[in-house]
Design brief:
Two copies of one chain form a homodimer. Chain A has helices spanning 40-51, 63-73, 88-102, 122-138, 179-187, 201-211, 217-222, 232-235, 258-263, 321-326, and strands spanning 2-6, 30-31, 37-38, 56-62, 78-82, 110-115, 118-120, 142-147, 157-161, 167-174, 191-200, 243-248, 252-254, 269-270, 273-275, 280-286, 292-295, 298-305, 308-313, 333-336, 339-347, 350-357, 365-367, 372-379, 381-386, 389-394, 398-401, 407-411, 415-422, 432-434. Chain A has 452 residues and is an alpha+beta fold. In chain A, strand 21 (339-347) and strand 22 (350-357) form a beta hairpin. In chain A, helix 3 crosses helix 6. The longest helix of chain A has 17 residues, at 122-138.
Chain lengths: 452, 452
């Protein structure tokens, strides 16, 4: 089974957990059986593996998410990086040519596309597997999953099947309706279009070449920013005649707002929180290391992260976006491919961060023009390279890297460092990267960084 | 006018702003005309000065509050330090002998005692001034302020005047009643006993010597921990026959709970906060440097500090204490006589704090047995002394002080330092202080510290 998971853009509807650089699919909010928490992307990836351990998963996403994906799913997961955002049709075209040209997948194989963020159970993955089988067995060009509507939503497009069989030809696609029209559609047996579909790889490549002038994956990648923003439904789905829909009645929740997200939470609290006995229908997600105490609240969500604190009536929480749009602030926390960083203190001419490097990872070899840095290693073992000179470092060591000095740090074990940046203009743009040859002095498998 | 301000113990009812080491009277929550915020103790001190610029104010308080008092009111304010907590009678006896023996105040002068934490206006200070005049003019031993009750409170004792004149002899004191009895008292013209009273200094010294065996201030200070815990009302007030009460009808608010505190706030928000248009009767006090967003809340208080986050229905907030008692955590922020510190990061074997020293102040000269420290100066200018060697320091300088090494830092301008503490056992107890002679090398007026 080949699956393309579409990992969408940054959203602010789940602020303060999601923001410009951290998308909702990376928030660790779902409790696993072992008591640990996992994110949407970790959950869906784990679920796919449980249904089909040999499933080949490719995540189609933007460059900004690559670090988080590798941080949460490991290095081996397939990632097809979009050079910029161009909506779902170009993204799927790029992923299809990546599978064919880079991964050498045969054009005769079925490929399933689904978003990374619905909250689903095992039955969903059985269904998408069946979707791929329908494509191959019934010789249709597209097989789409139609979700049983639970209310007349205005958020989704609708698919009208020709009949009420489990698998039926599609009579029509309907764009997002108003509530009244949605009720009519549902009365006619329409299903939600959740953006889940399957095709033969060769079909998608034909469609891609029909609509975009390109030679192969590499060529498409290079000209990606010249492509029009166009959705897959509009470019392909709604025009296709040889298409079937499979009726899906299992759980499928779109966790786009705090209201729906908290419905999917196993327990009322993630993180340190106390609810007194007069709280009713209250959920807390606390990423800070200090307690949240809630008293006498009803139908409320409280979320605290290094970015800020939300306290909202659950229904009101769906109107969050314009308020968050007005908040402009320093990014306070980010997951990177090599680990994570958290801002501890901001002053006019200094910035103090805590850097956690995962074992075997390193930063880029880089320098800054306008700032000096002081690293104090607080735990772990590793090595620094400063202007070409390597030294072993461990807890207690202090490394000074003045402006223009080239430096990097390599983690042999997990390595935690307090980094004090000092200068008149501190910005993430002030960074020059340098190559460093993979010599004996530098035997760690190289991974990338964009910060510090 | 001599005023003894009783600055009471740490309270948890205003958590997360108040805690074991930070009392409610030090929270900067009241907006001044210049747009800056001031605390209860700063407000009352400023108000006293506005009514009587020559008023001699002595703050009777515990050792733990001395740093905060000097931090907020300056070095010149009179402080009578109680070696330990022994309730109001010993505290007033100690302050009285301090005024007489140390400050050389004549026994014939009137002294006024009042708590540091009611929320009052100028009229209150006019009233307490009058209270002192009554003592001298009417030759009574005690003159007490009786507050006009606004509801049948169970929180206060009551004073029953003999008649309804503004100044009357006291008929009886009544202990905190239940609500029904309180209504009866109020029907009889009883007033709240807010712990505000005046006396001739010689009278209080007589009472002190009657009940406690001591020679003078110094002697009382030394044996303070052997004294019984006993309230002034019980030991003196309720037994005194030559006593008058003055009826006070002005504003007098006890800001002991979030509910009452928020009533005294000029604006709904202190600190960075956004309330959407559906919020009603919501107050936010945010001491963090990230925003708090509130949506759809009613009758709620939200407070965020380095210690934690409270989100509470206002009425429920008065039941906070047992919940806060269960929270045991690292102190995350403290004001000291020399400035303040804030915990930025806690790891098993390291603690990172930000130290802000006020200009002209310094830490004690000290060493640690079980931890190394690294200081990175991020702003300002000053000097360090490490094992007797002084050097000038400024932003960008790094100072390493391994275990056993003696060290201090002196701020010439405001000085901000990131301090990384590293060791297997990091505790505030691991500290040895050393004298440092006031030589030419060390000309800064010495002040004290108890941290770092």
């Amino acid at each position: 089974m080949h699956i393309i998971l579409l990992s969408g853009g940054s959203g602010k509807r789940l602020w303060p957990l999601s923001n410009d650089i951290r998308s909702k699919q990376f928030i660790k909010i779902f409790k696993k059986e072992d008591g640990e928490y996992e994110s949407m992307v970790q959950r869906i990836y784990r679920q796919i593996r449980e249904v089909d351990k040999d499933a080949e998963v490719t995540i189609a996403t933007s460059k900004t998410q690559t670090s988080s994906i590798h941080n949460q799913l490991g290095e081996e997961v397939g990632v097809c990086v979009e050079p910029c955002r161009r909506d779902t049709f170009p993204a799927i075209a790029l992923a299809a040519s990546y599978l064919h040209d880079v991964k050498k997948v045969s054009g005769q194989e079925a490929v399933i596309v689904c978003p990374v963020d619905p909250y689903v159970e095992k039955e969903y993955f059985e269904a998408i597997k069946e979707l791929g089988e329908i494509v191959l067995r019934d010789s249709v060009n597209l097989a789409i999953l139609g979700m049983e509507p639970t209310y007349p939503s205005e958020k989704y497009g609708y698919v009208l099947p020709e009949n009420q069989e489990k698998v039926s030809r599609v009579a029509a696609f309907k764009e997002k309706p108003d509530a009244k029209t949605a009720r009519q559609y549902i009365g006619q047996g329409a299903l939600w279009n959740g953006g889940v579909f399957a095709f033969r790889l060769s079909y998608m490549l034909e469609k891609a070449h029909e609509l975009i002038d390109f030679k192969n994956y590499e060529d498409l990648f290079v000209k990606y920013d010249t492509l029009d923003k166009i959705s897959f439904d509009y470019a392909v789905g709604e025009k296709e005649k040889n298409i079937k829909v499979m009726h899906f009645q299992g759980q499928w929740k779109d966790l786009g707002t705090w209201n729906t997200l908290t419905e999917a939470m196993e327990e009322p609290c993630v993180g340190e929180a106390i609810l007194n006995e007069t709280c009713e229908n209250v959920h807390v997600v606390n990423e800070l290391n200090v307690p949240v105490l809630c008293m006498g609240l009803k139908d409320a969500v409280v979320s605290a992260s290094p970015e800020g604190i939300l306290v909202s009536d659950k229904e009101q929480s769906s109107y969050i976006k314009p308020f968050v749009d007005k908040i402009s602030q320093q990014i306070m926390f980010a997951e990177k491919s090599w680990g994570s960083f958290r801002v501890l203190d901001v002053e006019d001419e200094s910035l103090t961060i805590k850097v956690t490097l995962n074992p075997g990872h390193k930063m880029n070899y880089h320098s800054h023009h306008l700032r000096d840095e002081v690293w104090t290693v607080v735990s772990g073992r590793g090595r620094t390279i400063v202007d070409g000179v390597e030294r072993a470092v461990a807890a207690g060591d202090v490394i000074k890297t003045p402006a223009e000095c080239k430096h990097t740090i390599i983690a042999d074990t997990e390595l935690k460092v307090i980094e004090v940046q000092m200068g008149r203009e501190i910005s993430v743009q002030d960074k020059r990267k340098f190559p460093w040859s993979q010599s004996a002095a530098f035997p760690v498998p190289g991974t990338d960084s964009t910060q510090t």
